[in-house]
Every structure is written in structure tokens, then in C-alpha cells.
Amino acid sequence: MKDISLCGLGNALVDLFVDIDELRFSELGFERSTMRLVSAAEQEQLLETLHAHNPRKVSGGSVANSLIAFSQLGGKAAFLSSVGSDSLGEFYRKEFETLGIEFLSKATSAGPTGTCVALITPDAERTMRTCLGATAELGTNHLDEGTIARSEWLFVEGYVLSNPELGHGAVREAVRMAKAHNTKIALTCSEAWVINGFRDFFDETLSACSLVFANEEESKALTGEATAQAAFKKLTQSVPNVVVTMGPDGAWVKWGTAEAHIKSVPCTPRDLTGAGDMLAGAFLAGVLRGESVENAGNKAAALASRVISQIGARLERV
User: Fold this and answer.
1) 20 to 30 A Cα–Cα from 228, which one of 103, 108, 184, 216?
2) How many alpha carbons fall within 13 Å on the CB side of residue 15?
3) Rounded to a whole number, what is the distance in angstroms from the first to the last CA of the chain?
4) Rounded CA separation 191/232 (Å)
5) CA distances (Å), 153 to each of 67, 211, 266, 306, in order?
């Protein structure tokens, strides 16, 4: 019985949001709008530096954020990941329990629960420093075949494909399980460097997918095309369902035989990064309820606009 609509496989990270002015940001010497992986020691030092800013704590991760939006819109979701056996891991677990999402993570003592420090500058850009911690240990032992079997869709986070030691095995085995139980597979690209750095495995995974989410740069990296529209058209030739987002220029969407261009909703951005995660979760909630591509896309675009008008990738109400 398929009693779960969407099962995510991705990184479990506790997001720590910090509003920071331009002067303080320049003192840190970070390149704006980048995401960099750092060690546990580097992250601890950064958090000590930012202690006076009182970072706001919330459970996150790319696919996790999409699952939260999906659940808030009435969908039944589950999440396969890895957290540390520490207070942040317990915080993450309890948040997902409160959100009504099945959280199937085996706590590991291999490292602390992963964290992502998000520095929000006045231009609404987010500069991130991520310590994967325990989520770097996400492997085949964190999978649950029964949960995948109960799910209509498996939603794979592209970042997991950037871990050849454990992530590749986890994704390959999750895809095998999904195929064995007629569970459809969706993939979100995460970032263009994941595609470029792990091309062969990315292509292997994509070939098993019924749905792909990509932003403009990711779609170009996937296809070699010069524009998002051309990349979208090329992707639709090999993947049954495709969503290519283009920020203020909206999104190109194909679901089944229907195609549409979805317009963005104008807003005053405060934090740009959560838009794609929200759009993916909201779009899936709509189409899996049987809504038309246009209705599901327009609602998803409206919610993406709302989420970038605030700090953080989660809406209190949808």
C-alpha cells in the first residue's frame, strides 16, 4: 500500500540564520552568495565569532525543506537521512515529528549533526558555510526499503551525489529499491558544480528519473544549451517530467503531456535561497493532488515568492 506520497533522501542540516551588515560581512572575507563546505572546527570557530548575532535555529536541508512545504500543504512525507547523537540531532528529530513527517534517521556518533550557517546580507543574498557532520555518513545503512516501497515517489537531493564514498552507494541502492517497488524517482540538481563534478554518476541517476528539478544554470550544465528554454526542451526529450526555474523570469514546466510557462510573482526579496526548495515541494503537492500544471505551478510560484520575502526557507503558514 502506497500510504506515503513523497520520500526524500538528502542531507539533514540545522540551519543557523544570521542577519549581518555589510561592514561585518566584509570583515569575514567571504565571497558573497557562495556555499562552502567547512570542517567541524571551522564551523565552531565561525559560530563563536557570530555568537552575539543570536543565530536563529531551524531544521533544514534542501530536500528536507521541500518535504516540509509538501507536508504543510497536506501531503504525507518521509525523510531518510543521518543526524548525530547530539542535542542538535534530537532537535531535528523532534521538529520533524511535530511537522508530521516520518524521520527515518539512524543517529551516528561519527560526527556532530550537520549545520549550515546562513549569512543574510542587506541585498537579500545568502552566503553559506556548511559543516556536513553526520550527514556526510549518509549511506546504504540509512535506507529503509519498507518506507521506499510505501512511497509513490522517491525524491533524491543532488548534493548526495557529490559524496562518492557513501552517497553514490546510497543513491544507487535507493534507486534499485524504488524500481523494485514501482516507486517513481525525482531528482533535484542542487547546484551546477555537482553536475559538472560528478557527471557520469549524475547522468546514471538521471536516466532512472521520472522528474527533474533544475534552475537555469543547472539546466545549462546538464544539457550544454545556452538558454534555460532550450535546456528545458532538451531535458523533456529524455525525462518525462521537467521543471526548470529562472528566478524572476518564472519557470518552464512539463508534467505528463502538459507544458506551461509559469510566471514569477513580484516581491521584495529578503533571502533568495529558499525559493527552489519551496517551489519543488509546493508543485509536487499540487500535481500529486491532481491539479493542472498551471494551477500547481502558479501556487508554487506564489509560495516561492512569499518564502523569499522572509528570512528562512520555511513558511509558518502556507
Assistant:
1) 184
2) 25
3) 28
4) 16
5) 12, 10, 31, 26
Residue 194: phi and psi, rounded to 5, are -65, -45
For residue 67, give Cα distances in angstroms to 218, 287, 313: 21, 15, 11
Dist CA 188 CA 193 (whole Å): 13
Return the C-alpha cell found at 95.
521538529
User: What amino acid is encoded at 305 in this protein?
Assistant: S
pLDDT digits (tens), the chain, 318 positions: 899 999 999 999 999 989 999 999 999 999 998 888 899 999 999 999 998 888 888 999 999 999 999 999 999 999 999 999 999 999 999 999 999 999 987 666 568 999 999 999 999 888 999 999 999 999 999 999 999 999 999 999 999 999 999 999 999 999 999 999 999 999 999 999 999 999 999 999 999 999 999 999 999 999 999 999 999 999 999 999 999 999 999 999 999 999 999 999 998 887 777 889 999 999 999 999 999 999 999 999 999 999 888 876 778 767
Query: Which residue type, as a one-letter code, is found at position 164?
Result: P
Long-range contacts of 197-201 (CB under 8 A, 24+ apart): 197/162, 198/161, 198/162, 198/164, 201/161, 201/164, 201/168, 201/171
CB-based burial, 220-239: b 16+ in 10 Å, e otherwise: bbbbebeebbebbbbbbeeb
Residue 184 identity: K
* Contact between 299 and 259 (Cβ < 8 Å): no
For residue 119, give the C-alpha cell: 549569512
Q: Is-contact 5 153, C-beta < 8 A? A: yes
Query: Rounded to whole angstroms, how far apart are CA atoms 282 and 273?
Result: 16
Hey, what's the torsion of the CAs at 249, 255, 257, 260, to 10 degrees?
-20
